Design the sequence.
């Protein structure tokens, strides 16, 4: 990281690539952490510099209270991202991260430093109103994670690991459930959506509705898999992202 950006607790730059023409800012799913995107940084560097967002309440930020309001979380991320908007950049969010990315993009555009592109994954459009799952007992939370294939069974069997991740999971699920879309201007940047063809949390029609949230181009990519299709489909997802980022960076240079 360059010195003037300081040591922000919000971002992890696993593979610094200061010469890259474009950045990709990645926002994790509920219960997720920045390390989920380590492989993305390794795959895209040095062509794309990847910043992974670290939410409070997990890993090295586990002593901080987890966010309870997705709009407040998006506001804080948008503010922290300021020093990193000196070159074309895009936002990528999976599941909860898609909502946070969308809300951050709205704020960044309002401030005149919006992203070149928004990538959303495994999440219905914000304007699609449907109640999210309400966490119950610890056992029910673990069962839900197993159902979605979000965490390896070995981790879920480790009591110490469970104690560490359950508070963040509960806080995130609560924040997602409380989120309500506030109507406003469509984004000026293109939106590209990804979803798994058997994702129980994001039906294809609900994901297609993201097109109403952009005044620019929209693209929907349906891939084999469930809610965490990204794990098995990383190559085609990253290929699409890189191709679109190259075009976005070229258009900025041309203008």
Sequence:
């Amino acid at each position: 990281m360059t010195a003037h950006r300081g040591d922000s607790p919000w971002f992890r730059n696993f593979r610094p690539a200061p010469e890259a023409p474009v950045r990709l800012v990645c926002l994790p799913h509920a219960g997720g952490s920045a390390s989920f995107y380590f492989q993305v940084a390794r795959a895209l560097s040095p062509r794309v510099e990847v910043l992974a967002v670290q939410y409070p309440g997990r890993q090295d930020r586990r002593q901080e209270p987890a966010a309870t309001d997705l709009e407040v979380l998006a506001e804080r991320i948008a503010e922290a991202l300021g020093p990193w908007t000196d070159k074309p950049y895009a936002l990528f969010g999976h599941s909860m991260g898609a909502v946070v990315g969308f809300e951050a993009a709205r704020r960044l555009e309002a401030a005149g430093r919006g992203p070149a592109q928004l990538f959303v994954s495994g999440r219905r459009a914000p304007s699609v109103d449907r109640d999210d799952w309400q966490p119950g007992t610890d056992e029910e939370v673990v069962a839900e994670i197993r159902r979605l294939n979000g965490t390896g069974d070995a981790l879920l069997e480790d009591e110490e690991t469970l104690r560490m991740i359950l508070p963040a999971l509960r806080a995130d699920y609560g924040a997602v459930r409380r989120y309500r879309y506030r109507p406003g201007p469509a984004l000026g940047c293109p939106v590209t959506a990804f979803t798994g063809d058997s994702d129980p949390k994001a039906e294809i029609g609900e994901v297609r509705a993201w097109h109403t949230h952009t005044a620019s181009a929209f693209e929907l990519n349906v891939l084999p898999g469930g809610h965490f299709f990204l794990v098995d489909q990383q190559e085609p997802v990253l290929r699409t992202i890189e191709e679109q980022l190259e075009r976005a960076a070229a258009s900025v240079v041309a203008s």
In short: The chain has nine helices and seven strands. The first strand starts at residue 11 and ends at 12.
